[in-house]
Amino acid sequence: MVMVVIGTREKDAAEAILPDCTKELQRIYGQTKEGNGQKWMTIDLEDRGGLYENVLRLIEIRRR
């Protein structure tokens, strides 16, 4: 499991890459409620497939 927090600074960049992400990440992002301008997503990573790569992209956005 990994937790990724998307705040107000990262929101536009994260939403810009969503169409290129897996349907699973799009579903998780869409179902995660926003609180105080943030989305706290807990994502279960079972393998190094597409979802894993998408999470790495979100983390990279957060690091900027």
Describe this structure in words.
The chain has 64 residues and is of the alpha+beta class. The chain has one domain (2-63). The protein contains three helices and three strands; from the N terminus they run βααββα. Strands 1-3-2 form a three-stranded antiparallel sheet. Strand 2 (34-35) and strand 3 (38-43) form a beta hairpin.
- In total, the number of domains comes to 1
Shape: globular
Q: What percent of the residues sit in helical stretches (DSSP H or I)?
A: 40-55%
Strand order of the largest sheet: 1-3-2
Largest sheet report:
3 strands, antiparallel
Strand content: 15-25%
Radius of gyration: 11 Å
Helices and strands, in order, run as: EHHEEH
The secondary structure category is alpha+beta
Mean pLDDT: 92
The stretches of 5 or more residues where confidence is low (pLDDT under 50) are none
List keywords for this structure.
64 residues, alpha+beta, 3 strands, globular
Brief sketch in words of this structure:
The protein has 64 residues and is α+β, with helices and mostly antiparallel strands.
Outline the fold blueprint.
Elements: E1 2-6, H1 8-17, H2 23-31, E2 34-35, E3 38-43, H3 50-63
Antiparallel strand pairs: 1-3, 2-3
